[in-house]
Q: What sequence folds into this?
């Protein structure tokens, strides 16, 4: 039968899945995981105020959400001391990265990221037909000097940084990123993915300059706020750039419940602070468990710990698979040399009890 | 300061807002509407089971939704007697129309719609750089023969139909659409937007042929299911076409709460049937109120009624504005000759009491 005449980009794109979900793994293995500590979610959950807000709003789900996201944008603007027109609400940072790429990336456009950084960014670049250059990590951090050099040399229209880092957990001081920004080529838009900024030390942050059209800052309610399933985040930038999102975004795309939930979450900063403490304690315990089993924890500013298994990717993969086989969902970086690590998200005490019990067995098995 | 180097499409796109939301109107007028019967939402709300499912799932919103939407896709597939791989979950039909356009529309590609049909479709075509031809309505229905002719003559890669019709409320028998499908040019993909199919007479529907790569059927939980604020719908098509959505969709983009809510809604067909009865009764009352005020109701297969005001767009607009000024949110078609009508969504008894009281005042004012 006649097939649709796809665009050139679609015809050339391979089928791809950015991340296999834990549910798909559970279906494949025929049973649930006992610990879900692989997707950098917050097992500590959302604020009780958020839960209450969702429950109260549930009967009103017949109403479309406000397509202007006015109240939430105003709350975020007030929180950050920027204007409402500097804020666009996005369906998680994933959704925002998709839109940002569509603003500036078309076939023939060069884009810079780091080799091993968040693969969903790469997915969106490919979906726009962009040409991606991946700068190797240096000392388990994104090489921001290398990113800048490549942006210059490749006439890149977009450069992507995550700070703190995923999948390695480290961070750059905000002032180093400010220095990079001041040296950006005129044609380069810098996307700063700050999904994990809420768990980071203060020095990793830097003031938001909403007058600079060359920088977009991406934040989310998916991580420390414990709302990954609500698919809501935001992007802050110069008003003229932010306005351009309106040309392509799905105006009615943000769930009404998620708008309301995010506003309740933002208002409960006490809960956020308490959660960050719990995440921090869990990460310290993961580090201890790793060390006790000969796996070296990398410093983390996030809600996860990368444990350096000390050998190659195959070895780390065997450890990861040993944990998966023991019903513990964890992940690992996809690219060498980062893939000598496994990545474990902050868990509840019970989650980490399971990890603590399983890891010695796994280490014995992989050493056998 | 240096500006981002936007794509050619973005540079050429005017700023646009597909639909101003009622919240924006409320902010502008400085107070809430008393009746929200303008956005074709279901004032009767979601199934109690849906509300309960949302409330039960709220504490688990820390988990990402399954990126495969497996359970919901399976439930929808079973419901329609197609395969799971014939179904993709979308962030409302709006989101699905955006993705479908991105699969096949690039600069230079011709697309056919009807003049006055759903403007968000046009928005997405523009965002892909497509060239849109709008076929005039004929006798207040989309001219499906004209759409077919234009698809042939313009070598169109996409043709868009809504059935039942928005904004006029009418419908084509499904067999007429099947005839159009059998005559489609090989290169044309037909998008059938069936947002209102749940309130339509059986003859408006036609069997889903999931083996045909030239047709995509769009359905939603936003209308009769009463879940507009959850942003969830689905598209059914041939498996190879559906797979291509994976190349560009936001894999983790569907809210976990919305997946769960939609599944609960689908399982409560008794509630859907009861709601459709209530919608039908409300539409009959809107028609009666219109007639009593000299406004002729058009036949409807949807959850709204287009009332023909009998003169030009300015006259209908004055009536709409009279209702808005009396705290009743309604809308009207944007294009002549459809804009001789106002469009009123099914409301509660209280909503329609307000309408019944206000409309005579409005008619006196516009006649004065």
A:
């Amino acid at each position: 039968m006649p097939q649709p005449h796809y665009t050139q980009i679609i015809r050339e794109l391979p089928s791809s899945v950015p991340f296999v979900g834990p549910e798909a793994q559970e279906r494949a293995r025929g049973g649930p995981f006992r610990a879900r500590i692989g997707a950098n979610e917050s097992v500590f959950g959302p604020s009780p105020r958020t839960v209450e807000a969702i429950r109260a709003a549930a009967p009103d789900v017949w109403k479309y959400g406000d397509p202007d996201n006015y109240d939430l944008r105003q709350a975020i603007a007030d929180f950050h001391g920027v204007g409402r027109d500097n804020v666009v609400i996005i369906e998680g940072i994933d959704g925002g990265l998709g839109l940002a790429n569509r603003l500036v990336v078309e076939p023939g456009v060069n884009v810079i990221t780091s080799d091993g950084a968040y693969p969903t960014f790469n997915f969106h670049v490919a979906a726009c037909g962009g040409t991606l250059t991946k700068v190797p990590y240096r000392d388990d951090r994104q090489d921001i000097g290398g990113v800048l050099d490549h942006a210059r040399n490749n006439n890149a229209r977009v450069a992507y940084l995550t700070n703190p880092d995923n999948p390695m957990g480290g961070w750059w001081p905000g002032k180093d990123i400010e220095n990079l920004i001041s040296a950006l080529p005129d044609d380069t838009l810098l996307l700063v993915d700050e999904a994990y900024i809420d768990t980071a030390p203060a020095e990793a942050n830097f003031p938001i300059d909403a007058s600079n059209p060359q920088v977009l800052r991406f934040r989310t309610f998916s991580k420390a706020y414990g709302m990954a399933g609500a698919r809501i985040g935001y992007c802050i930038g110069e008003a003229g750039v932010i306005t351009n999102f309106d040309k392509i975004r799905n105006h009615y795309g943000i769930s009404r419940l998620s708008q309301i939930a995010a506003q309740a979450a933002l208002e409960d900063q006490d809960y956020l602070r308490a959660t960050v403490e719990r995440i921090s304690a869990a990460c310290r315990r993961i580090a201890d468990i790793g060390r006790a089993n000969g796996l070296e924890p990398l410093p983390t500013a996030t809600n996860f710990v990368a444990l350096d298994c000390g050998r190659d990717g195959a070895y780390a993969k065997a450890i990861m698979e040993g944990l998966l086989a023991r019903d513990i969902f964890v992940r690992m970086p996809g690219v060498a040399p980062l893939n000598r690590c496994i990545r474990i998200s902050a868990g509840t005490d019970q989650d980490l009890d399971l990890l603590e019990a399983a890891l010695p067995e796994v280490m014995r098995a992989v050493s056998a």
